[in-house]
Amino acid sequence: MKKGWAIIFVLFCLCVCGIWLITNDSMNEKIDQNELVINGSEIKDAELRIYYLEDQIHSDLPIIAVLKALGYSPEWINSDAVFEISGKKYILSLSEKKFYQQEKGPKVNYLLPPPGSDSFVCEIIGDDLLVDDSTVWSVLYLSGLSVDIHIDIDNRTVYISEQSSARGSAA
């Protein structure tokens, strides 16, 4: 009798693990199946990921594509993208994986996980930097922008909208 329950328990565990693996693989299998919508406009060819981590939904976003869609065009100097936001210049260094304000004195890197964040992603994908949604929000906020990032897991879409209470405006 105990052997029968043990077999049923093992089969149950295998089914649960199998369903979990299938779900997680389908969420991460193709980056291009996900969509990015910024201020109501779909951003074509944006590479992003949507996934579960510790029972929470996360996404990794192409930060240069996000800034461009918000109206900030970079000036390229070697592998660095220079953005002017709210009258200040910010440098995104792809090689160093840093985003900082161009000013005299020490460079404060904004590409750090914000307090309480449970994930941090910062990887070069083509000519962009794929960064986790919490850090993207933090970088934009520290640059003077206020945005809302909403991840719709069912439709595999990330929505970013600039808030009217933004501390700065597009250059």
Can you walk through the features of this model?
There is one protein chain. With 171 residues, this protein is α+β, with helices and mostly antiparallel strands. It has 2 domains: 1-31; 34-162, no CATH class. 26% of the residues lie in helices and 34% in strands. It contains 3 helices and 12 strands, in the order H-E-E-E-E-H-E-E-E-E-E-E-H-E-E. It has helices at 2-28, 63-69, 133-142, and strands at residues 35-38, 41-42, 49-53, 56-62, 75-77, 80-85, 88-93, 98-101, 122-125, 128-132, 147-152, 157-162. The strands form 3 sheets. It has a 4-stranded mixed β-sheet with strand order 2-1-12-11, covered by helices on one side. A 4-stranded antiparallel β-sheet has the order 3-4-10-9. It has a 4-stranded antiparallel β-sheet with strand order 5-6-7-8, with no helix packed on it. The protein is elongated. Residues 20-30 and 166-171 have low confidence and may be disordered.
List the helices and strands and how they pair.
Layout (H helix, E strand, L loop, with lengths): L1 H27 L6 E4 L2 E2 L6 E5 L2 E7 H7 L5 E3 L2 E6 L2 E6 L4 E4 L20 E4 L2 E5 H10 L4 E6 L4 E6 L9
Parallel strand pairs: 1-12
Antiparallel strand pairs: 1-2, 3-4, 4-10, 5-6, 6-7, 7-8, 9-10, 11-12
